[in-house]
Amino acid sequence: MTPLLVLKSITFAYDAREDRILAVVNPGHPPTWSCWLTRRLVLSLLDNGGKFLAKTSTLVQRAAPGARREVVAFEREAAVARPRRRCR
To answer: What is the distance between the alpha carbons of residues 70 and 41, in angstroms, rounded to a whole number?
Structure first.
């Protein structure tokens, strides 16, 4: 099993001229890694994020089948509203 990579930071910057998001990943040591995220890719990730959360969240899986959609929405909203932690 491959060990998980601990990241120091991930930074996103929108370029309006290119209509793309630049994602820069800093593992805390060289080299950093970056890529452009297109609108199509980001929309697909957002669209499929709920499906991924429904499959991987233990909270969602413990919820009654009729309430799972609401629990997914709650978890997503909580994650978006959570204050960003500063890496040291």
So the answer is: 25
The predicted-structure confidence for 36-80, as pLDDT tens digits, reads as follows: 999 999 888 888 887 887 888 888 888 898 888 888 888 878 877
Gyration radius of the chain's alpha carbons: 16
Q: How many domains does the chain have?
A: 1
3 in any annotated domain: no
Q: Whole-model pTM? A: 0.55
* Own/partner long-range contacts of 67-76 (Cβ < 8 Å, ≥24 apart): 76/49, 76/50
In a domain, 87, yes or no: no
